[in-house]
Write a structure and sequence with these properties.
By secondary structure, the chain is mainly alpha-helical. The chain has one domain. Helix content is 86%, strand content 0%. The protein has 3 helices and no strands. Helix 1 packs across helix 2.
């Protein structure tokens, strides 16, 4: 059974309700944690999975659960090099985004050769 979220409005409303619940339960810190969770765990891996021929719900599912393993391990290894947790978070996010950009460029070059 396929459950494609075809309407971005549903996703935006769902995320805003979840953000509202976090802010009501934990105050402004809960909202900040929710936003950080979406940015670091949700969007960073979706940049990589966006380049794969998967359905949107599969991209979200795989991206969400793989990000629980990839992002913390990458932060841990970068922290071993630079000994700054905040700097390692920023560098890890940049590295994950760069991997997504590199995959997009390589996929674009592959498509250019096959279309001609």
């Amino acid at each position: 059974m396929k459950y494609n979220i075809t309407y971005p409005i549903v996703a935006i409303i769902s995320l805003s309700i979840i953000g509202l619940v976090f802010s009501l339960l934990f105050g402004s810190m809960g909202f900040k944690i929710f936003c950080g969770f979406i940015i670091f765990y949700g969007l960073s891996i979706l940049f990589i999975f966006n380049q794969l021929p998967l359905d949107p719900d599969e991209k979200f599912f795989f991206g969400f659960f793989i990000s629980f393993a990839i992002f913390p391990i990458l932060i841990w290894y970068v922290d071993r090099l630079f000994h700054s947790f905040r700097l390692s978070i920023i560098i890890s996010l940049i590295l994950i985004i760069l991997v997504g950009i590199i995959l997009k460029i390589k996929r674009g070059k592959k498509n250019d050769g096959t279309d001609k």
